[in-house]
Each structure stands twice: as C-alpha cells, then as structure tokens.
Design a protein that fits this description.
With about 400 residues, this protein is an all-alpha fold. Helices cover about 70% and strands about 0% of the residues. It starts with 16 loop residues before the first helix and ends with a helix.
C-alpha cells in the first residue's frame, strides 16, 4: 500500500491512505471541538467525514465473520440499548417522546464505531502513527491559542506551580483546557507502549491543561504506573469494588449538595463550596429542587438549556446517568465499561481515570466525541496487545510442561 510520509530510519513515520483518512478525521474532530470553531462546527463537516469512513470502510465489515474488538463493542452496545430502553419506558409513562435521547445515544455509539472501523482495517501497531498525529494536533490546538491570547509568559508558567491554586480554584494563569484530559489518555497510551519522549510530552500537556483530576492522576501515574503489570488481568474483587464505589457516588452527591455540608465546608476551609465546585453545587441543586419530569437520557441537559441556566449540563455524568436512567442504568453503564477494561491494569486505570472525570465533568454529549475516539483507540490497542501476549505465552507454557514431564519420566 502506498506510503505518503517517510522520514529517517531512526524516527520513521509511515502513513498509508487508510491511516491518513482515519488520522485526519480524528484530528479534525479535535480541532473543531477544542478550538471553539462554532461556525465550522455548525456545518457538521466532522460528522459527514465519519459517515464517509463508515461507508468506505465500515460497510465491508458486515461480510467479515471474525471482527476484532467485538467483545468490547458488545459491552458498549449493551449500555446503549439498555439506557435507551429505560429512557423509552420513562417517555411512554409520560406519553411524550424526546429526540434528544436519540442524540445522547448517537454520541455514545459514534466514537465506538470509529474505533471498530480503525481496528478492523489496520494493524493495531499502526495506531501509533494516528496517535502521534493526535498528539501533535493537541499540542497545536492548545499552544496556538495561549500564544495568540498572550498568556504564555514566564511569570504565568511559574504561577502554575502553585498547586494550592490549582486544587482550590482550578484557574490556570496560562490557560485551562479540556485538552488536559486528551493528554492524559495519550500519557497512558505511550506509557504502555514504552515511548518515553512522547510520554514526557503528554505529561507536560496534562500539566499545562491544568485540570484537577488530570493533574492529580498524573502525579499518581508518574510515581506508580510503572509498577502495574502491563499484561495481567485485573482481579475481580478490584473491578467489582470499583464498580460499587461509582454506584454509590450519586448518593454521595446528594449528601455533598446539601446546605448542611456546604456550611460545614465553609466553616472548615473558609471557602464557598459552590465556588470550589465551579458552580456544580448550584446546578445539581437546581435539578434536584426543580423536581422535573424524567424522560431518560438528556432530560437534565434539556432542562438547563431551555431554562437558560448558567451552564448547559451539570458537569457530573455519573450523577446524571443515575438521575436520568435509575440505579439500574447506572449499574449497566458502570459494569460494562469496567468489564471492557479488565484485560490489563493499564486499561483499567485508564477507565478509572475516565470515570473520575465523568464524576466531575461532562464527557457524554456534543463536543466530547474526539475524547472517546482517543479513548477507544487506547483501550483497544492495549486489549489486543494483551491478547497477543497471552496467545504467545500459551505454547511456551505447554512446551515447559512437556519438558518437565519428560524429565520426570
């Protein structure tokens, strides 16, 4: 297949026509979603590009019998089916059908389909090239705007090391960005692939993006990630324990959003809890106190938009899924996503980070597609690599057992 880009032998970067198209679509999504290009975004070009690769490279997959990452895809499709059915039951009970629920399901499925198409058209090792271009795009998207804004100065960079300001006010002197979350996914990916330079660059991107959870996880990963086995399956008690924690978090949110807790927090830390949570306290309380009719997925977002609230979502998808689809919907969502990431500690920790972000931010809906596209590329690469490693170890184990039996006889 024709190669479009080639460099020196030491730093070889090959890009065939499939990689070029897949990488271009992902990078275009990032540029549009993370650079506030609202005029361009209104044309929906990025979605037309996705439809194009689905037509070119997705339709032929229906003829394939042994699709890769089918188990991971099954987990996400189960989530989509169950959450939509719950939403449909709630809408039937109110005799009112909402199109915004279909939109919510679309944003859950579309990045998954992108990942399926990529991994069934190119080798998993070839994803490195797509991720490299993704890293370059994220760096450009972030540093271009802070240079244009004039915030990239020595004094502002020095102020960034005041971590107290980060964890209390979460205000970046240089420029806070959701791209910190993208850099975190890339950091985990490159750590797994043992690409040191790219790992360091991704870590720098996480820190400059200046998001609380991202920086907190970065500090943890820098110290401890190397000690986690790359090809070892996560024990069931760890996975189920984590699932239970995230199922309990919506109930903890109710307690944290009480006036009593807010008063205690202020007396203890001399800081307004609503300011500390960056208005999340106000938004969640607005939803709870409004006693709105629940029509399933998208109900809270639609309510905030139609009532001209200070934000379009409550920035807590863990609570939102519970509130909109009941505890059963929360269980199906949490169980299946962690099941998809059980093959390796690296994929599990990546999913743990994603769920931590889901608890404090909004990553399901418009403007989040590129995040999940990167997430699926990372998770699928790790899972496929673990499967390869396991299949290679089996013959070795059989050979060792045969040699042992021969010696004993």
């Amino acid at each position: 297949m024709k190669s479009y880009i080639s460099q020196t032998k030491r730093h070889t970067l090959t890009l065939n026509k499939k990689q070029l198209l897949f990488a271009f679509v992902l990078c275009f999504f990032i540029i549009v979603e993370k650079n506030a290009l609202t005029t361009l975004d209104a044309l929906h070009i990025k979605h037309y590009l996705l439809m194009l690769i689905m037509f070119l490279y997705g339709l032929p997959l229906f003829k394939r019998k042994n699709l890769r990452v089918k188990n991971e895809a099954k987990s996400v499709l189960i989530v989509c089916a169950v959450l939509y059915l719950i939403s449909l039951v709630l809408q039937i009970s109110h005799m009112s059908f909402k199109l915004y629920t279909v939109g919510e399901i679309y944003y859950l499925i579309i990045p998954l389909l992108y990942g399926i198409i990529v991994f069934n058209n190119i080798d998993s090792d070839s994803v490195d090239t797509i991720m490299d271009l993704t890293l370059i795009t994220c760096l450009f998207s972030y540093f271009y705007w802070i240079i244009i804004d004039g915030t990239l100065t020595v004094s502002n960079v020095i102020q960034m090391f005041d971590l107290r300001n980060l964890f209390i006010k979460s205000i970046s002197p240089v420029g806070e960005s959701d791209l910190a979350n993208y850099f975190m996914l890339l950091y985990i990916y490159y750590s797994y692939r043992k690409k040191t330079f790219r790992t360091i660059v991704s870590a720098i991107g996480v820190f400059f993006g200046y998001k609380r959870f991202a920086v907190l996880f970065l500090l943890f990963f820098v110290v401890f990630l190397r000690f986690f086995p790359r090809h070892k399956k996560v024990p069931k008690f760890v996975r189920y324990g984590t699932i239970i924690v995230f199922l309990l978090l919506p109930f903890a949110t109710y307690a944290l959003c009480s006036d009593e807790f807010a008063m205690w927090f202020y007396r203890k830390f001399h800081l307004d809890f609503n300011e500390f949570t960056m208005t999340r306290f106000y938004l969640i309380n607005l939803i709870i106190d409004s006693h709105i009719k629940n029509y399933g997925l998208g109900t809270t977002t639609n309510f905030l938009v139609t009532h001209n609230a200070i934000a379009d979502n409550i920035h807590n998808d863990i609570f939102r899924i519970y509130y909109e689809t009941t505890i059963f919907g929360s269980f199906v969502f949490t169980y299946n996503y962690f099941k998809m990431s059980e093959k390796s500690w690296y994929s599990f920790l990546a999913m743990l980070y994603i769920f931590a972000e889901l608890f404090g931010a909004h990553f399901i809906g418009p403007g989040t597609t590129s995040f999940w596209m990167i997430a699926y590329l990372m998770l699928f690469t790790i899972n496929i690599d673990v499967e390869k490693n396991t299949s290679q170890l089996k013959p070795q184990k059989v050979e060792i057992l045969n040699e042992t039996e021969q010696k004993s006889s």
